[in-house]
């Protein structure tokens, strides 16, 4: 049983041994690296005697880092703490395998539980224990739109899937690509699909896709897949050649009117000189208002870490208000806590903070919160075929098979 860091002696280390803390992540560029540096600065202020080892692995949106992490974890050489998507990416990969220590005591001893929404606590827990501290929250279900295009055509942000279809038809009739998609990384198509599924099934029905209570061949799931297929008629023809940021650039340039993507798009737009509320607007993706489809970067405690006491202090910092308010304005995300200081955040992020505090919290599948990594990989394979062939029955059969193969572990939670 772990105890609080202050009560740990030196974990068997000689008293004169230098204290270290190795943090493993894929945050190597832009705002993410700046945010990580802010966390390091805060940690060093509190623990100046500890040398921080910044073990980052660049590239692949985290895929390169995950491959290195597997080698280290299987070789019994874990970092002291590592970045991982909160939810099933951590739980099914490392917690169920017995590679992580529970950290519920950190939240309880520091009185942090009341600062986290119950829905988020459920996502980071397994068998009544918390296993990671989410340092941020990104929102998946956001519609970003070109405000000048919408103004010229007398449009407002669609609030339902039916309204989205009507807006798409009007824009298409005017010779404008309605919906930008950049799925040369197939996850972006899965990202779009999860918003459609949430709109068609509601939060409980959507959750049911991942816990087995909503069969993939049910009428509701079939309708969600069918609505997704219908939207593909309105995306840019070169979607397979673009990445998510290429699709966002189409909206910025007026080559397309809308895109459905996570709120890192706002950081992209701002970096391009676009002003929130002027050149671009945002809304919950059609049909999902009242639900917050979330993903989160988090840190936990690997078993066998060499500097466990220092790692506990690190995880506590990641879970704290001070740590999150230092990290997130740089990263372009919002705190996982509901008591962050809104004065530190811009207009979009303040709106996301308000929604996160009051909405139903549901986990993203495209970003590792709702399903195991193996299951997500199978879903992406089905999605690759669906995007090309647009065959409803084949897609339903593929998703059913993926659930049978990848979903068994979820029913043990």
Instruction: Could you tell me the CATH topology label of the largest domain.
Output: D-Maltodextrin-Binding Protein, domain 2
Largest sheet report = 5 strands, mixed
Structural class: alpha/beta
Average pLDDT number: 92
Q: Which overall shape is indicated by the principal axes computed on the Cα atoms?
A: globular
Secondary structure: elements and pairs:
Elements: E1 19-25, H1 30-46, E2 50-56, H2 63-74, E3 81-85, H3 88-95, E4 100-101, H4 104-109, H5 118-123, E5 125-126, E6 129-130, E7 133-134, E8 138-139, E9 142-146, H6 147-152, H7 161-173, E10 177-179, H8 187-211, H9 219-231, H10 244-253, E11 256-260, H11 264-271, E12 280-284, E13 291-295, E14 297-299, E15 301-302, H12 308-319, H13 321-331, H14 347-358, E16 360-363, H15 373-389, H16 392-406
Parallel strand pairs: 1-2, 1-3, 10-11, 13-16
Antiparallel strand pairs: 3-14, 4-15, 5-6, 7-14, 8-13, 9-11, 9-12
Structure description:
With 413 residues, the protein is α/β, with parallel strands linked by helices. The chain has 2 domains: 5-137 and 296-353, Periplasmic binding protein-like II (D-Maltodextrin-Binding Protein, domain 2, 3-Layer(aba) Sandwich); 139-293 and 365-412, Periplasmic binding protein-like II (D-Maltodextrin-Binding Protein, domain 2), CATH 3.40.190. It is built from 16 helices and 16 strands. The strands form 5 sheets. A 5-stranded mixed sheet has the order 2-1-3-14-7. A 4-stranded mixed sheet has the order 10-11-9-12. Helix 15 (373-389) packs antiparallel against helix 16 (392-406). It is globular and about 70 Å long.
């Amino acid at each position: 049983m772990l105890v609080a860091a202050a009560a740990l002696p030196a974990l068997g280390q000689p008293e004169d041994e230098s204290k270290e803390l190795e943090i493993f992540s894929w945050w190597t560029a832009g705002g993410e690296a700046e945010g990580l540096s802010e966390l390091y600065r805060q940690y060093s202020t509190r623990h100046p005697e500890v040398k921080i080892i910044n073990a980052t692995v660049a590239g692949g949106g985290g895929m390169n880092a995950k491959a290195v992490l597997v080698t280290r974890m299987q070789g019994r050489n874990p970092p002291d703490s590592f970045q991982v998507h909160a939810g099933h990416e951590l739980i099914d990969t490392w917690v169920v395998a017995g590679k992580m220590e529970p950290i519920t005591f950190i939240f309880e001893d520091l009185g942090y539980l009341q600062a986290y929404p119950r829905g988020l606590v459920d996502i980071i827990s397994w068998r009544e224990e918390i296993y990671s501290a989410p340092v941020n929250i990104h929102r998946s279900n956001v519609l970003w739109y070109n405000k000048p295009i919408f103004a010229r055509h007398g449009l407002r942000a669609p609030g339902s899937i039916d309204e989205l279809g009507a807006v798409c038809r009007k824009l298409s009739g005017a010779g404008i690509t309605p919906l930008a998609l950049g799925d040369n990384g197939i996850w972006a198509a899965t990202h779009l699909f999860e918003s459609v599924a949430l709109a068609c099934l509601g939060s409980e029905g959507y959750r049911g896709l991942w816990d087995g209570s909503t069969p993939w061949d049910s009428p509701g799931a079939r309708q969600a897949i069918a609505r997704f297929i219908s939207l593909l008629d309105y995306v840019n023809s070169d979607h397979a050649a673009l990445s998510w940021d290429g699709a966002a650039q189409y909206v910025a340039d007026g080559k397309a009117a809308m895109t459905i993507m996570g709120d890192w798009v706002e950081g992209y737009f701002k970096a391009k000189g676009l002003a929130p509320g002027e050149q671009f607007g945002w809304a919950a993706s059609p049909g999902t208002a009242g639900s917050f489809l979330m993903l989160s970067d988090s840190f936990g405690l690997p078993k066998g870490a060499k500097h466990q006491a220092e790692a506990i202090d690190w995880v506590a910092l990641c879970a704290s208000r001070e740590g999150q308010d230092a990290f997130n304005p740089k990263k372009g995300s919002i705190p996982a806590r509901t008591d962050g200081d809104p004065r530190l955040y811009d207009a979009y992020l303040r709106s996301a903070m308000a929604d996160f505090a009051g909405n139903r919290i549901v986990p993203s599948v495209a970003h590792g919160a709702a399903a195991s990594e193996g299951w997500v990989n199978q879903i992406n394979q089905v999605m690759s075929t669906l995007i090309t062939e647009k065959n409803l029955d084949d897609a339903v059969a593929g998703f059913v098979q993926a659930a049978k193969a990848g979903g068994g572990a979820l029913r043990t939670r």
